[in-house]
Amino acid sequence: MNNPANVVILVAEDSEDDRFMYGRALEKIGFKNVRFVPDGEEAIMYLRGEGQYSDRTAYPFPHWMIVDLKMPRKNGFEIVEWVRTHAECAVIPTIVMTSSMIPSDVKRAYELGVNTFFSKPHSQAELTSLFQQMLSYWCRAEVPAPPPTRKCE
């Protein structure tokens, strides 16, 4: 997946300010297919293709996910746990981006199977730089194709 314009990223983030900053940073470096959900419950609905997310033209299956840990309804840990127990989704590269740097949170996230864990940068320039570095890595990495049904059962 070498072309950022073709990559679909699902971002589970409850902060409107952070969603705005992420969107600006990702668009600036060429990512046009970013889909945002405000909590873990919506993320799972998106992955399952339920409700409004059943329209895979408007809500395409993600190639990668970026999740916050501290969210309402279902938190980032619950998303990762759900994803890793569903074979169709277990292979989605999952990146934690959070303000929590509690060592037990870092450890638990990796135990649940996240691919990487980052602290949220404090400036737009730092965020753009971090996204550029981490997403250029994932653009070069080989990742499995989405499930044929384009949803996780």
Provide a concise account of the structure shown.
The protein has helices at residues 16-28, 40-48, 76-84, 103-112, 124-140, and strands at residues 8-12, 33-37, 64-67, 94-98, 116-119. It is an alpha/beta fold and 153 residues long.
What can you see in these coordinates?
The protein is α/β, with parallel strands linked by helices and 153 residues long. The protein is built from five helices and five strands. The chain has one domain: Response regulator (Rossmann fold), CATH 3.40.50.
Helix content: 25-40%
Report the oligomer.
single chain
% residues in beta strands: 15-25%
If helices are DSSP runs of H or I spanning 4 or more residues, what is the number of helices? 5
CA-to-CA gap between the ends?
24 Å
| CATH-assigned homologous superfamily | Response regulator
SS content category: alpha/beta
Mean pLDDT: 91
CATH topology: Rossmann fold
Q: What's the number of domains?
A: 1
CATH C-level name: Alpha Beta
Assign the CATH architecture.
3-Layer(aba) Sandwich
- Round the Cα radius of gyration to an integer and report it: 14 Å
Strand order of the largest sheet: 2-1-3-4-5
What overall form do the CA principal axes indicate? globular
Order of helices and strands: EHEHEHEHEH
Low-confidence stretches: none
Q: How can the largest sheet be summarized? A: 5 strands, parallel
